[in-house]
Amino acid sequence: MTGTRPTSLKELRESGWQSKSVKHELRDNYLAALQSSEPLFPGIVGYDDTVVPEISIAVLAGHDMLFLGEKGQAKSRLMRALVRFLDEYVPYLDLPGCPVHEDPFNPLTRAAKEYVANTPEDQIRIAWWHRTDRYAERLAPGTKFADVIGEIDPAKLAAGTSMAAEDALHFGLIPRMHRGIFAMNEIPELDELIQVGLFNILEERDVQIRGYPIQFDLDVLILFSANPATFNRSGKVIPQLKDRIGSLIQTHYPRERALGIEIMEQEARPDASGVFVPYFMKEIIEQISVSARKSKYVDHASGVSARFSIANYRTMVASARHRGVRLGESPAVPRISDLGHLPTSSLGKLELDLMGSHQMGEKQVLEAIIADAIRTVFEEYVEAHGLEEIADVFSKGVKIEVGDMLPSAEYAKRLKRVPKAWEKAFEVNAGASDAVRASCVEFVLAGLYASDRISRATRHGRMTYET
User: What is the pLDDT of residues 275-289, one digit of tens each?
Assistant: First the structure.
């Protein structure tokens, strides 16, 4: 492919290649993708009817965009995904030392204009820029004006370059992404001086560094991300900058638990060999995140990332695999007792509401959230399978001890002395293996406990259920 592309300005002109702005280029390729009915954002789940249509309108309108949402709502992934709608390669002037990838037909810098004007077209070298290199991203905290916009280069001044000359300037990321896409994450954390520089670029597409204006038309798509709590706080983002952002794209958490599970499985990508995860265990892991987002103990403004579910899912699977290897069980099947290891992957990911949590620590809040999630999922299975009668077993003095390192065969032995009502527990997940049945039994026991039907005592990782 490389050998077929023009390597000189003369060959490029003869090839019929036409110059486009980056937004025009993006729009044309996006329209082609819409017409072909191909997935627009592969791997992005749950946004087809909400977020994606808004992005489509913004792209077709040629707008710079702000992705507004809480953490873990795929804001950065959506911004990066727009790169696939750029042309695979675009030509640029192969001019050593040039700070930007110049459009061969519309050069911006003085050096590039002089090069094109004074060099025969068959001697003007052309190189090709791949779309994956036409995207740059920056996190706002710690960002300085020189990083994204530019600064006077003291070394060039010392060498005798005039401060009034374009050559004396060091270009920041945005000018260097001319003909590309620049994304700024967490814009409310950006210094006000940089915000002023950004709205000047958004409005005029030119750059001013220490009062020296570079009068050229920057061709760049600018994207932003922010959390609603900080973006809407007075004074965090200057009104002029808000006013110049073309479209605001509001993201959200999965509207249905099944979509959350789909995201969790897609992103966790655990090694599935030797492990079978019952669907109700996947439901509980995702419901823990759902319950955390609704909990009065958790700061709603911060949100609960999808990474919370992903990390917990991996921990649960790892605990099951650990048991499987130690006890020689295959496949290993996650149980409720494996959730006892979730603090390792959960603590630090929840920001507590200081007013709601009072004296509760993060671990206590997590335990309450896990109990709520188990109860929520269990009640759905009670309604579907009539598991209420199992609680009657414990009125006859039955005790059942379980734990994450208890062999599955032990569950089968202990169930021999339990009335047949226990058989209904296996309707939860059809499976003849001892490991699956052990998981079902723990789910029913934990559900009965979470809904205050039986009591539980925990000692050294073992749990005993009774009336």
Answer: 999 999 999 999 999
pLDDT for residue 97:
82
Q: What pLDDT, in 10s, does the model give residues 153-177?
A: 655 544 444 444 566 677 888 888 9
Same-domain check for residues 34 and 166:
yes
Residues 90 and 234 in one domain: yes
| CATH number of the domain encompassing residue 16 | 3.40.50.300
pLDDT over 70 at 181, yes or no: yes
According to DSSP, residue 186 is labeled S
Distance CA 227, CA 169 (A): 34
**What are the CA-CA distances from residue 33 to residues 28, 77, 451 (Å)?**
9, 18, 50
Final residue belonging to a domain, choices 199, 230, 250: 250
Q: How confident is the model at residue 196 (pLDDT cuts 50, 70, 90)?
A: confident
What range does the domain containing 101 cover? 2-250
* 326 plus 239 within the same structural domain: no
Of the ranges 65-69, 350-354, 429-433, the best mean pLDDT one = 65-69
DSSP element (H, E) containing 269: none
Query: 317 with 441, same domain?
Result: yes
- E strands, 135-266, are 135-139, 150-152, 169-171, 180-185, 207-209, 212-214, 220-226, 247-250
Q: What is the distance between the alpha carbons of residues 115 and 124, in angstroms, rounded to a whole number?
A: 8
Q: What are the residue ranges of helices labelled H in 127-191? A: 145-148, 154-158, 173-176
Number of domains in the chain: 2
Q: Does pLDDT of 53 surpass 90?
A: yes
Coil, strand or helix at 298: strand
Q: Are residues 199 and 318 in the same domain?
A: no
Q: Which of these three, 185, 215, 250, is where a domain ends?
A: 250
Same domain, 157 and 32: yes
Answer yes or no: is pLDDT of 420 > 60: no
Closest Cα to residue 443, out of 382, 354, 361, 363?
A: 382
**Are 136 and 244 members of one domain?**
yes
Indicate if 218 and 190 belong to the same structural domain: yes
d(CA 40, CA 22): 18
Three-state secondary-structure class, residue 101: coil
**How far apart are the C-alpha atoms of 238 and 194, rounded to whole Å?**
11
